[in-house]
Amino acid sequence: MTASEKNLSRRNFIKLSGMTGAALTLGIYSTASGKSMELITAAEAETSGVELNAWISIDSAGKVTIINHRAEMGQGSFQAVPQIIAEELEVDLNDVKIIFGVGNEKKYGSQITGGSSTVRGSYKHLGQMGASAREMLKEAAAKKWGVDKSTCYAENGQIIHKPSGKKLGYGELVADASKLELPKDIPLKKSSEYKILRKPMPRQDTPMKTNGTAMFGLDKKLPGMLYAVVERNPRFLGKVKSFDDAEAKKVPGVKHVIKVKMAVFSTTREGVAVVADNLWSAMQGRKALKVEWDDSGFPYNDTTQLYAKMEEDLKTKEGLSYRTMGDVNRVLSKAEKKVEAVYSTPYESHASMEPLTCTANVTADSCEIWGPIQAPGWVQDDLMNVLSMPREKITVNMTFLGGGFGRKAFTDYTQEAALISKEIKGPVQVVWTREDDTTQGPFRPGMMYKVEAALNPNGRIAAYKFKMAGQNMDHQWPGAEKDAYNGSTTEGFLEPYFERLPHYSFADIPLDSPIPVMWWRSVYSSTNGFAFESFMDELAVAAGKDSMEYRKMFLGGKDRYMALIDKLEQVSGWKSKGKNEGYGVAITECFSSIVGEVVKVSKRPEGGVKIDKVWAVMDCGWYVNPDIIKAQVEGSIIMALGAATKHATTFKDGKAVEQNFNTYKMPRIQDTPEIEVFNMDNEEPAGGVGEPGLPPFTPALTNAIFDLTGKRIRTLPFDLEKV
Amino acid sequence: MAKYTLQINDKSYTVEADPKMPLLWAIRDLAGLTGTKYGCGIAQCGACTVHLNGNAIRSCSIPVSAAASGKIATIEGLSDDNTHVVQQAWIQEQVPQCGYCQSGQIMSAVALLKKNSQPTDKDIDTAMQGNICRCGTYPRIRKAIKTASKMMVAKASTK
């Protein structure tokens, strides 16, 4: 990068945050090896020639700007990231301006927002940044006063000299501080010293989301921007044979009708885009478009057929081995007491409230992207390739996301928009209708499971054999080995269980299908969890033991797990449940967090079952904001409720059947049970918060229904009113 | 194409539109008020909820020609600075997660509370069942409506 390009990007940053004059700016840069991240000041960066990374900046007016490098899709990273920095920096969150970082993985490190990784992946670096800035300001003040640094402390955006009470605001110190050497490895505060961490600080984005000012992807407007909607192939892989745009072009406002494409894993999807000067006209134009598809050369899948294949595979194949111990088949063949079950979970759409959209402005030598994007770095990688442009020429801006759940970490919709903009030689906003969003995928893969176990007379498990059948997301990438095992086969299973199983085997049988699949909230745990924890319950029943007590048999000595299960037992009143009440428990772990849930159900007078209450205990180790955690677990439970009892994506003749919310039915306010969330307080490393609350809900629910009615539900979704 | 003068939040917006254009797009793209959202286009999700003559309607399913003669209120018109009691309650209870459905949720809640300042759980179910929230903020929406109700009652009693 030339000196002028470097300065230009710094100037852009200053413009972006509205700073004036001197500033103390600290960021992180990648070391030459690219393997680690180091703190650096702006001054140092200029002289040593590394690319300036700015995460925090304090200007001469004392205004603090913090950049949120991760996507905000509701999970609270917009709040958590600044909260961590502000704690160490000793500023009031209300005095801090938060802006979205532009996509730049070299600057900010990984910006992929997924796997519940934002806090747990960066909290130590973020803390160090805040602490380093604070120490530099302290040193600047001490120098100015001619006193020892140890006599000064930071509070509320000021440095105070303890003996005399002298104060200086950060704004008055930044010019001097920015010239100092950056201190590293400053000991961070102990959790007992936290002023804002671990507190339910109100979210900074809440006011914007209650008055309509928060900008989502569809709200972005660029001068001269056109709007596009795309007619895509309902069977995913079909090619455009021909199209008749005569009627479409007659719609007032329609400017272009063009053939388009986008890469989805190893396939190229074709479509026809109608581009107009307003969205409504584009939609009307598309209705008048006639497209002839060539749908030859690939199978048309039906849900019945897919599940029949998975069931057959589970019966006849051993699968690709992921994790084994001992000789599970031998022990099973000789066992006197065996339990066996087959579980079935459906394909699901992500169904974010905001449908997919992307705004792109591609010129001869640059590309600007705006949109609800979970992985700006990946979008850049993709567009560098597709547009043959260097990284510095591709700017990827994240707006607020109206939900993501994994779908918006993909680069298909962004590529499509960029290619349309390139073709029409102007800025364009591509909007997916709800029908497009619900039927085009990629989807959460539907999975089937077969679990078998041999029980000892005392109820302990002598052998445990787990097989999962269904599509492996990883097999879709170009060059992927179709006989590679699924690395997520045990995702969701409690780690201590492995130690207590003398013989076990976990394997998967991949299903080959053109249906595109990808990460959905909590990924494979969302379906694995149902199998693992339903089966655990079936074993408890077979062993004649209480479900909670049964799990304790395998968690003895594992303090963290025992503390969670004790808490769960206590808050749910498990031991004192009444007659005509069904209680079910499930405990899963994913993304380094452990979550246990208890569901209470009772019979409805008009038939069926209702959910009375859900208790959840979350152990995510080190945490930032307990209220955000509570909100994430509540939301995860309601999302699981939908997948368990309301909606599924089915396929007929190769096409997704459910198109909109009239057939893909979402849980609504009247379906929501009372939910109570508890957070374990410990110093374990930070685990994920956005997703781990989802997997335990469904098995806890079906276990509760078994407890109440004796009916075992193994196929999802099911109708609560028909139980 | 026809000319319409829309009364939105006590302001006039003169627009030219296809008479069949849903009010939603007239509000978002012609009047430039993007607080009202597109979620499904078939009146199933409530993200597009606005008020027409004081009643909550799904703007995606009413043509601009039918709405032109009425008084339209959108999220932007509730207050200048989040001072509407429902917005205050929403902030106090920390309702939004992604926030995309919230304009519609709030407009439905405002309409409910205007007609019934002390709704029961069943009243809330009935009034709010048309508004989907994928992030699952329903427990907080319910709590916020009750908080707004309390705030309204308290305000009324100090008059």
Polypeptide structure, described:
The complex is a heterodimer of chains A (about 725) and B (about 160). Chain A is α+β, with helices and mostly antiparallel strands. Chain A folds into 3 domains: about 5-210, Aldehyde Oxidoreductase, domain 4 (2-Layer Sandwich); about 220-295 and about 355-430, 2-Layer Sandwich (Aldehyde Oxidoreductase, domain 4), CATH 3.30.365; about 305-345 and about 445-720, Aldehyde oxidase/xanthine dehydrogenase, molybdopterin binding domain (Aldehyde Oxidoreductase, domain 4, 2-Layer Sandwich), CATH 3.30.365.10. Chain A is built from 20 helices and 28 strands. In chain A, α5 crosses α6 (about 170-175) and α12 crosses α13 (about 410-425). Chain B has about 160 residues and is an alpha+beta fold. Chain B has 2 domains: about 1-75, Beta-grasp domain (Ubiquitin-like (UB roll)); about 85-155, DNA polymerase, domain 1, CATH 1.10.150.120. Helix content of chain B is about 40%, strand content about 15%. The longest helix of chain B is centred in the C-terminal third of the chain and has 20 residues, at about 140-155. At the A-B interface, α7, α9 and α19 of A face α1, α3, α4, α5 and α6 of B.
Q: In what range is the share of β-strand residues of chain B?
A: 15-25%
Number of helices of chain A: 20
CATH structural architecture of the largest domain in chain A: 2-Layer Sandwich
Strand percentage of chain A? 15-25%
Helix content of chain A: 25-40%
Largest pleated sheet of chain A: 7 strands, mixed
Largest sheet of chain B, if any?
A: 5 strands, mixed
The CATH H-level homologous superfamily of the largest domain in chain A: Aldehyde oxidase/xanthine dehydrogenase, molybdopterin binding domain
Helix content of chain B: 25-40%
- By secondary-structure content and strand pairing, the structural class of chain B works out as alpha+beta
The interface involving the most residues is between: A-B, 62 and 59 residues
CATH topology of the largest domain in chain B: Ubiquitin-like (UB roll)
**N-end to C-end Cα span of chain B:** 49 Å
Lateral strand order in the biggest sheet of chain B: 2-1-5-3-4
For the secondary structure, the number of strands of chain B is 5
By CATH reckoning, the class of the largest domain in chain A would read: Alpha Beta
Number of domains of chain B: 2
